[in-house]
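Entry: SDR family oxidoreductase
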Amino acid sequence: MPLYESLRPLPELRVLVTAGASGIGACIARAFHEAGSRVHVCDIDRAALDRLVTETPGITGSMADVSVAADVDLVFDDVRGCLGGLDVLINNAGIAGPTGPIESFDASGWERTVSVNLNSQFYFARRAVPLLKESTADPVLIAMSSVAGRLGYAFRTPYASTKWAIVGLTKSLAMELGPQGIRVNAILPGVVEGERMDGVIASRAAALGLGVEQMREEYLRKISLRRMVSASDVAAMALFLCSPAARNLSGQAISVDGNLEYL
């Protein structure tokens, strides 16, 4: 196989993207669709889901709260019906969680962050693995962590805790599933430009008593390349990890962050 060909995912991969109707998830879903994969997404946002499947014919979707195991079971009923199996799971769902000193949080904010960010990874992995074991297309599980999964993140402790846990889950599953030929990796996006990051910056600025633009400059100064990354940068890494060129990459936590030095 020519080297450049090995950089492309295999055609007709059957791909499931959680929280795939907007943001990074939608960018990943569209990228795999354009690469010739058959893509199914789930999302809690009905309007965003309807918009995605309308604008991108061929992508199918399910409504689901990823933190609810019964909803996840229904997603896999749809996956079997729409895709007939699974070659790639991209566990993308996550929320920012509360911002502030730990003593200011109530239990509900912590528990919701853990439920969406971490429990969902477990719910989807346990249902996906039997299908991935049946795949003959070099199956892959990609977990979306964060640069906050390798760095401490003051005032964002619920979020950072779940993202570190996802890296541990990834490395453990890579060991567990490697003998069955299933590769498991985590992507750790850094500061991703867009509406969600705008909200994070505003919340953190408020927590620290700073102006929003001052807070934005603080974020950029922490990045060696002095720029945010895009959702497309993250999607490109996901495509690469599902390509033959990445056939010996497993158990890795790969940052896409312009070298974010600290948080």
